[in-house]
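Reopening: structure tokens for the oxa(dethia)-CoA complex, inputs below.
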Amino acid sequence: MSRYSAITGWGMHVPEQTLTNADLERMVETSDEWITTRTGIKERHVVRPDESAFDLALPAARQALERAGIEGKDLSLIIVATVSYDYRFPSTANLLQHALGAQCGAFDMQAACTGFLYAMSTAHQFIANGSARHVLVIGVEVLSKVVDYTDRGTCVLFGDGAGAIVLSASEQPGGLLGYTLGSDGANPELLYIPAGGSREPLTEEGLREGRQWVKMNGAEVFKFATRVMGTAMEEALANAGMTAQDMDLFIPHQANLRIIDAASRRLGLPQEKVFVNIQKYGNTSAAAVPIALCEAIDQGLVYPGAHLGMVAFGAGLTWAAAVVKWTASVATKPTARRATPITVTGRRS
Ligand code: UT7
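Re-run output (same inputs, fresh job):
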């Protein structure tokens, strides 16, 4: 008998505190106009000094369990996609397992911004081979703690947040229909944190030089992203025996509105099929896709039978895409509406 992997629960959590473009204008030489037209971002949520990845992931996870109608003890596995682990070890998943009262394996994995789709695909394997019934998959990041707030090329982009799903075994056709994972590790320095790992442990000199902060070659990552978002999505669709025209909603990684637009154009998608919430959260890395999924559901854009396309790219470089046929019942009714429209130079009307 086939075992399908269906999303049965979903939840999200972002910190209360926001960092607006006006705030950033006071911190670095930038402007609301530059940030809005070049990225689509208006504000992002950032943690307090005492908040960690665990603190964001826990409420998102609880919400997802509640929606799935299960408790922590029903989980077969917990996978957390993050580069913002609470401790080098043990894993954040391990902390969550205890807090949720789960009695199962738990591990962190990372593929940077692509992490959630890597984790969801991994969860699917456990379900498909019969060794898991309910898997909690979380994407969570606290990038505000590793971003250099004197570097205008990166600090305007990133925000903190968590998104979670419960992926459950199902006999009903649907759920995760196809996916693709990709990696090209030739140029890690395009987007990385140089120090703090085994290659370059943190030293006083390294700290003085700011080698503990995110470094990025934005233009190169931009070029890569505009290329890979469309091709990865097409590959996952082909693996599911579908084309872009079969997608009811495209939920891309929220890194830059211009990248989202380029990918949507390549896929021939009208704006109303493309979900965008980057204006509110910035790039929350591994949390971006599950947060976008939660908000798309809240806005009534997801309904039983809908085909959702999800795609992400990130440091590594890495990329992944997945096609999900939605099966869970949702409280809201579908409406042909997209996230708050925002204006970006060159954006199609
Ligand atoms: O999940 C993956 C994470 N990373 C990404 O997705 C990043 C992808 N890349 C990007 O989104 C874009 O490359 C950026 C938004 C980072 C930059 O936009 P851009 O249009 O590629 O700008 P640029 O890097 O080519 O810089 C253009 C100018 C430069 O000034 P000069 O050299 O022309 O005088 C930059 O110094 O814009 C300047 N600039 C800024 N100006 C005001 C860069 N950042 C800022 C800023 N405010 N925040």
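The domain at 176-325 is CATH 3.40.47.10 (Peroxisomal Thiolase; Chain A, domain 1). The chain has two domains: 4-173, 176-325. Marking as resolved unless the reporter disagrees.
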